[in-house]
Design brief:
Structural class: mainly alpha
Distance between the termini: 41 Å
Strand content: 5-15%
Strand order of the largest sheet: 1-2
Order of helices and strands: HHHEE
Shape: globular
Number of strands: 2
Number of helices: 3
Helix content: 40-55%
């Protein structure tokens, strides 16, 4: 990614520091608490860019919103089906 963005760096930090694989809304609320000027669309757009550039991973859930992960080493995500 060519352009540096302070808000994008904050989004990455929030996901890096999280151990619960936050949703986009959780990321937005955490970033917003630190930077009240950030908009929801900025956070959601940057999450898409970060996924597209393989900086973070998107975990699609069967039920509920997608979640995001920064861990780059191979690891499993288990979804209970029963």
């Amino acid at each position: 990614m060519k352009n540096y963005s302070r808000q994008r760096e904050e989004i990455i930090k929030v996901i890096k520091d999280s151990y619960n694989h936050p949703t986009a809304e959780e990321v937005y609320m955490t970033v917003k608490a630190k930077d009240p000027a950030v908009s929801r669309s900025t956070v959601y757009r940057n999450l898409g860019l970060l996924v597209d550039n393989k900086i973070i991973s998107k975990i699609s859930m069967q039920v509920g919103p997608d979640r995001f992960d920064y861990i780059r080493s191979p690891h499993n995500h288990v979804i209970c089906t029963k």
